[in-house]
Amino acid sequence: MPEGHVVHRQAKEITKLFGKTTVAVDSPQGRFTEGASLITGSALTKATAQGKHLFIHFENQLAVHVHLGLYGKWTFLSERVDPVGLIRLRITSDSACAELRGPNACEVITQGEMRTILNRIGPDPIKGDDPSRIREKVLASTTPIGTLLMDQKLYAGVGNIYRAEVLFRHGINPYSQGASLTRAQFDEIWTDLVQLMKRGVRSGRIDTVRPEHEPRAMNRAAREDRHGGEVYVYRRSGQECLVCGSMIEQGELQGRNLFWCPSCQSGV
DNA sequence: GCCATATGGAAAG
DNA sequence: TTTCCCTATGGCA
């Protein structure tokens, strides 16, 4: 259940474990048996990520496109073991084994199909992409910024946690229209996402609390939640804001949980 | 055992 | 805007 930073880590891990290796691919669950037959025996060259999409490239020019969705999960092992649960895709080499459960998407695609997918995904802060092509769209939009941030055609890799946290860090109300932001605010948000998400790639967790608020945040995340990081508002509704002490609020936007501080994020 | 929940996204209406 | 799909887990009987 990752946001973009985790997918980038997984791409690196898969490349490290299996890059330039001829692997065996199978589907213990059975739903990817046909796809597996198209690539097993071909050398895995590398894995790459754009936003939350993962691509595992093979020497025969085919690739496996994986999107984890809400439930998907990779497990990396040093050797193949008896399958536990429903394993859609399994990659095995002499020295490693990767198991994939519950993905939203797991399919073999051609180079052309990969381009089609990449073309509909927006710039990715983690890759250092240029946000200029989405700046005017956001600044002209009557849609809430809290919705725009979750739109993968605009902000590739941003999920519910980064959305909530970056808006808090800039004092922006999630319901403010994109058009109500200044150009400077757009740029601040983007720059901050680049830093936060790159840090997430390095650490494997989402930490958004600034050093000066760190003492109040210490160990809260570990006690309160299991997403594995220290945050200001995500899943902290009903608790005190780490900055001003107000109660964090919870709402819903596009069917997803939304968290914000009504005091710190009262303005645009 | 049963139920609610989850860091998503696409299809259906 | 609602429904559906994918799977595992934790809380509660």
Number of helical segments with 4 or more residues: 9
| Strand order of the biggest β-sheet | 1-3-4-5-9
Largest sheet properties: 5 strands, antiparallel
The number of distinct β-strands equals 11
Structural class: alpha+beta
Mean pLDDT: 93
User: Termini separation (Å)?
Assistant: 30 Å
Helical proportion? Answer: 25-40%
The global form is: elongated
Strand content of the residues, in percent?
15-25%
CA radius of gyration is 20 Å
Give the SSE order as H and E letters.
HEEHEEEEEEEHHHHHHHEE
Spans of at least 5 consecutive residues with low confidence = none
Report on the architecture of this protein:
It is elongated, with a radius of gyration of 20 Å. The longest helix is centred in the C-terminal third of the chain and has 21 residues. The chain is an alpha+beta fold and 268 residues long. β4 and β5 form a beta hairpin. A 5-stranded antiparallel sheet has the order 1-3-4-5-9, with helices on both faces. The chain has a 4-stranded antiparallel sheet with strand order 2-7-8-6. A two-stranded antiparallel ribbon has the order 10-11. It has 9 helices and 11 strands. 39% of the residues are buried. α1 runs parallel beside α7. The structure holds a DNA duplex (13 and 13 nucleotides).
